[in-house]
Amino acid sequence: MERVLKMLEAEMALVEQQFRHDLDSEVTLIRKVGEYVLASGGKRMRPMLVLLAARLTGYQGDKQVGVASVVEFIHTATLLHDDVVDSADLRRGAATANTVWGNEASVLVGDFLFSKSFSLMVRTGSLPILQALSDATTMMAEGEVLQLISTCDLDLSEELYIQVVRDKTAVLIAAACRCGGVLGDVGSDMEQALNDFGMDLGIAFQFMDDALDYIADEAEFGKACGHDLEEGKMTLPLIETLRHCSDDERGQVEEIVEKELLSDDDLATVIALITRYDGIDYTRKRAQQLVDSAKKRLAVFPDGEAKQALEILADYVVSRSK
Q1: Alpha carbon 173 to its chain's center
Q2: Most-buried pick from 30, 33, 128, 178 (CB within 10 A)?
Q3: Residue 205's closest CA among 182, 238, 181, 236?
Q4: Residues 203, 291: Cα–Cα separation, whole Å
Q5: Exposed/middle/buried for 109, CB within 10 Å: 0-12, 13-18, 19+?
Q6: Can you tell me the distance from the alpha carbon of 89 to that of 50, in angstroms, rounded to the nearest whole number?
Q7: Are 50 and 100 in contact (CB under 8 A)?
Q8: pTM of the model as a whole
Q9: What Rg value do the Cα atoms of the chain yield, rounded?
Q10: pLDDT, mean of each 10-residue run, the chain (322 residues)
């Protein structure tokens, strides 16, 4: 992964510079909140995918930096909104923006970032890029609502959960990859291959987040472990466990999920069940299958540095610990 970061270092510096420039507003709070979220770190995977996909397609222009910045703008807006919806206190090891400035400020600054994103998209002068990113933001909103109505639903199937993940998380990653193809003006088959690569990668990324939420060290993971459970979110490790556990064990989970506050014992009980029924291993295996599928999508492109970097990035998704 360090090799990929080194390769993109100059372009990513320009993306960060562009992001800060686009945060410009006469309202000081907007810049403060936006820069706070930006400075909290993050993997910057989405802008990296735009840059790598553009390189893969042989793009020689300079619009990839602006597009990468827009994608990170959209992602940052969703983080601000998600933390309010989830009542999250920690993000990337630091207090969330809503903890520092309140829910109202987080929602409104998130709205600003979404609105500004569309203005920035128009600046690219590319209708296909505008189409890809606007479609993605619509689906992301649908995914959020679908996840909301699936809260505490112990009957949620893996298929429906994948739809939640695809709409809420993976579509923006897929759109980031597609935009690189649009910039490179490749044919529809290659553009679709990039989109499908991003979709597989995005679902795998969320699956690993699901697993890490139960087992990662909080200091390393950057947010409280067991937060998904406390929010009543049915994620893949628990879905797999509920497929195999006894009726009595299912009843235990149901009681715990419906609590407003979980004790350490509640979390330990659920983790023990997930361990017993191999929920974490199953989730990791599904993530690995998706990463393998994603890498195969790139077969339509010639071998080279950019393709290898995308494969390294894909492998990182299943090997990460935060």
Answers
A1: 7
A2: 178
A3: 236
A4: 9
A5: buried
A6: 30
A7: no
A8: 0.91
A9: 20
A10: 76 89 88 83 86 95 92 90 80 80 90 88 87 94 92 94 96 97 93 97 96 75 71 94 96 90 90 95 97 97 94 91 66
